[in-house]
Structure formats: C-alpha cells, structure tokens
C-alpha cells in the first residue's frame, strides 16, 4: 500500500486504548491521518496510546467516554470536528463480551451490557459521524463485527447477536449513505491475539488446538485487522460499500463447506 494514503484525513477510532482499536489507530496515524481515540477504561493506557500516535506524526485527541452514551459520543464528534475541521473515517472497535454463558442462560444485565456497548454504541457513533460526513459528501465507516456475527459461536451469550446486528446495521447505513459518497463496511475477524480473549492463547496448548481449526493454522495479530481497516478507510476501496470483509484465516469459508 502507498505511503501517506490518509494524509490530511481525520479519523476516529473507538476502543482505541488497546488491542485492535490501538492497532488501527496506529495504522491510520502512520498513514498520515490525525486520529481521535476514545475508550471507557481509565487506566492511563488511552493517553499512552495517544502519545504513541503523536510520535507517529499524528495530531491525536483522546476522550474517555462510553460509546453507549449519546451525549458523550456527540461531544467527541463535535470536538474532533472543531479541532480537525472534518471527520473522514470512523472505525468502531469498542466492544465487550462475557464468555462462558449460553444465550439461554444469559442474564438481562449481561444482555444489556453487550448489546448497549457493541450494537447501540456502534449505532450512536455511526449516526453522529454520518451527520458530518453527509455534509462533507465523503466518509468511510468501518465497523468491527466478528466471525461469530456470521455464524453462531459456543458460550458467547449475547455477543454473536450483537455482532450479527452490526453487519445488518453496516448494510443499512451503507444503503442510506451511498448517495452522499459515504461508504460503510464491516470487518469480521476470527480470533485475534489481544487481551480481550487471552483465554484462547495464554496457554500454548489451547492456542494450538484453536489454530488447528483455522485453515491458515494460526490466530491473527491485531495489525492484520488494522491493515484491512486501512484499506477500507482509503480511496483504494472507493467502490466498496456494504461489504463484510472476513479477516479470519479462512475460518468462515471452511466452516460453510462443512
Ligand atoms: N480479539 C478478538 O479475537 C476479536 C475477534 C472478533 C471481533 N473482535 C472485536 O474487535 C473489537 C476490539 O476487540 P479487542 O480484541 O481489541 O478487545 P479489547 O478489549 O482489547 O479492546 C476493546 C476496547 O473497547 C473498550 N470499551 C469497552 N466498552 C466500551 C464502551 N462502552 N465505550 C468505550 N470503550 C469501550 C475497552 O475498554 C477496550 O479498551 C471488539 O468490538 C471485539 O468484539 C475481537
């Protein structure tokens, strides 16, 4: 991919404090964008990541917000637009899952937490950013879904439902925003080596067992999801909208063949 493909652009990455969000924010900054990151957690990592983005040459903003809170989302969008004069890219990475429960057992409290963060949070951020992108007549939104948004996954409670919802939301926004030249796409990762799912890879034996189910024979690194997001954010993807890009080592296609 060409250098500086996002030069002069302004991007927002939710859940940007660590993991996939951090890798995407770094890829956008390295490609020349000014980057706003936000996260709910207050442990110093958000500011640390913002400092890393500055070192990559980006002007960076950091907001400690909850993406499921409309007012907090609106403030972040407004202040980013005021600072950078535009919002070209939104990558929705903030997400939670509560492992170890079935949908049958899922408590109302856990359902609300997962759906509010993953589905409502993505919706609120898309809606607020879209308002600005419609005025600009340009924009690219990337929503992080999951392999389990395309097929059910064991012991993941409401999580697959939230991720499937993100796929339909992506297609709906893509349809509604296409005439304003705003593209909306989703990425469906397989298992990515982040703190989110340490349980799948902290033990080499467990990691090997899961890797054996993946045609490419290994789990993903967050940077591999970031490269897909960078492509979708860039003009190289100018004719792609409403698409779900599986970045899962061939796992979903191989499953559908069974
Ligand atoms: N890691 C994987 O294997 C994997 C696979 C498929 C999809 N995903 C999705 O990718 C996204 C990023 O996952 P990750 O692995 O980087 O996880 P992560 O836990 O490392 O990062 C997610 C970030 O979102 C933040 N967050 C949670 N709730 C929030 C809220 N209400 N408001 C703002 N920020 C909030 C967390 O504090 C965290 O920093 C998530 O949406 C996840 O569902 C991850």
Please provide a written account of the structure.
The chain is α/β, with parallel strands linked by helices. The protein has a single domain (10-256), classed as Rossmann fold. Helices cover 43% and strands 15% of the residues. It has helices at residues 19-30, 45-55, 70-84, 108-136, 159-177, 204-211, 222-233, 251-256; strands at residues 10-14, 34-39, 60-64, 89-92, 139-144, 182-189, 244-247. The protein has a seven-stranded parallel beta sheet with strand order 3-2-1-4-5-6-7, sandwiched between helices. Helix 1 links the parallel strand 1 and strand 2 (34-39). Helix 1 packs parallel to helix 2. The longest helix has 29 residues, at 108-136. It is globular, with a radius of gyration of 17 Å. The mean pLDDT is 96. Nicotinamide-adenine-dinucleotide (NAD) is lined by residues 14-15, 17-21, 39-41, 66-68, 93-96, 117, 121, 144, 146, 189, 191-192, 194-197.
Task: Compile the SSE list and pairings.
Layout (H helix, E strand, L loop, with lengths): L9 E5 L4 H12 L3 E6 L5 H11 L4 E5 L5 H15 L4 E4 L15 H29 L2 E6 L14 H19 L4 E8 L14 H8 L10 H12 L10 E4 L3 H6 L2
Parallel strand pairs: 1-2, 1-4, 2-3, 4-5, 5-6, 6-7
Helix pairs in contact: 1-2, 1-7, 3-4, 4-5
The structure holds nicotinamide-adenine-dinucleotide.
Nicotinamide-adenine-dinucleotide binds next to helix 1 and helix 4.
In this entry the ligands are:
nicotinamide-adenine-dinucleotide
Number of strands: 7
Number of helices: 8
Q: Into which percent range does the helicity of residues fall? A: 40-55%
Summed over residues and divided by their number, the pLDDT gives a mean of: 96
In CATH, what is the class? Alpha Beta
- Gyration radius, rounded: 17 Å
| SSE string | EHEHEHEHEHEHHEH
Q: Please report which band the strand proportion falls in: under 5%, 5-15%, 15-25%, 25-35%, 35-45% or over 45%.
A: 5-15%
Structural class: alpha/beta
CATH topology: Rossmann fold
The neighbouring-strand order within the major sheet is 3-2-1-4-5-6-7
State the end-to-end CA separation.
35 Å
State the assembly state of the protein chains.
Answer: single chain
Residue stretches low in confidence (pLDDT < 50, at least 5 long) are: none
CATH architecture: 3-Layer(aba) Sandwich
Overall number of domains:
1
Shape summary: globular
The fourth-level CATH homologous superfamily is NAD(P)-binding Rossmann-like Domain
How does the major sheet shape up?
7 strands, parallel
């Amino acid at each position: 991919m060409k250098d500086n493909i996002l030069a002069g652009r302004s991007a927002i990455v939710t859940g940007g404090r660590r993991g996939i969000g951090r890798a995407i924010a770094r890829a956008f900054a390295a490609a020349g964008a000014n980057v706003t990151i936000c996260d709910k957690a207050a442990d110093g990592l958000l500011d640390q990541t913002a400092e890393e983005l500055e070192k990559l040459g980006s002007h960076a903003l950091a907001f400690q917000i909850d993406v499921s809170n409309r007012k907090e989302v609106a403030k972040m969008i407004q202040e980013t637009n005021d600072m950078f004069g535009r919002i070209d890219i939104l990558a929705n990475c903030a997400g939670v899952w509560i492992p170890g429960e079935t949908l049958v057992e899922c408590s109302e409290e856990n359902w609300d937490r997962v759906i509010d963060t993953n589905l409502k949070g993505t919706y609120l951020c898309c809606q607020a950013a879209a308002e600005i992108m419609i005025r600009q007549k340009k924009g690219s939104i990337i929503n992080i879904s999951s392999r389990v948004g395309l097929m059910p996954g064991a012991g993941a409670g409401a999580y697959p439902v939230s991720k499937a919802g993100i796929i339909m939301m992506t297609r709906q926004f893509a349809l509604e925003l296409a005439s304003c030249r705003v593209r909306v796409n989703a990425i469906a990762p397989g298992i990515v080596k982040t703190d989110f799912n340490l349980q799948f890879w902290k033990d080499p034996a467990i990691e090997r067992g899961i890797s054996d189910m993946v045609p490419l024979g290994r789990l993903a690194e967050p940077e591999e999801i970031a490269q897909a997001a960078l492509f979708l954010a860039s003009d190289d993807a100018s004719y792609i909208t409403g698409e779900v890009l599986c970045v899962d080592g061939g796992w979903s296609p191989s499953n559908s063949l069974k």
